[in-house]
Amino acid sequence: MLDLPRPASARRSSPAAPVSDEVLLDDLRAGQDQAFADLYVRHRRTAYGVARQVVGSGPAVDDVVADAFTSLLSSVRAGRGPTTNVRSYLLTSVRNAAIGHLRARERTVPAEAQVVDRPHHDADALVAADDEHRVRRAFAALPPRWRRVLWYADVHDLAPAHVAPILGISSNAVSTLVRRARERLRREYLQAHQDRVAPGCEDYSPHLARYVEETLAAPLQHRVGVHVLACEHCTAAVEQMRDLRRRMRAVLLPFGLPAAAVAEPRGRHDRWRRRGSGSGALGAGMLGVGAATALGGWVVQALRRSWWPRPRGTEQAVLLPVLFLAMSLLTLAAVASSDVLDPAGRIEPPPVADAGTAGPDATSPPEPGAPTPSRPGGGRDGGTPPTGTPPAVWPGDGQAHDRWPFDQSSWVSDGGTAQPGANDPRPDPGPRPVPEPGPGPGQTPAPSAAPPPTNPTPTPTPEPEPLVLEVEYDDLGDLVPGRSGVLGATVRNPTADATGTVSVDVTLPAGVELDVAGGSRAVSGWTCAAGTPDGPACTVDGVAAGGTSTLLVPVLVGADTAVGAADLRLDLHGDGVAPAGVDATVPVSQSPFTARYVATGPVEVAVVGAPVLHCDPAEAGCAAVVDGSATGAAQNNNAWNMVTVDALGTGTASSTAELALPAGSEVVAARLYWSGRCAGDVAPVRVGAPGAVAEAVAGPLSMYRSGQRYQASADVTGLVRSGGAGTWGVADVCATEGVGANAGWALVVLHRPAGTGAAGRGLAIVYDGLMAVSPSADPPRFAVAGRPGTAARIGAVAWDGDRSGATDRLELDGTPLVPMLWGGAGEVGTGSAGNAFDSTAWGSAYANALGVDVKPFQPVAMAAPRAELVAVGEADAYTLGVVTVATGS
Question: Do 641 and 700 touch, CB atoms closer than 8 A?
Answer without folding.
Answer: no
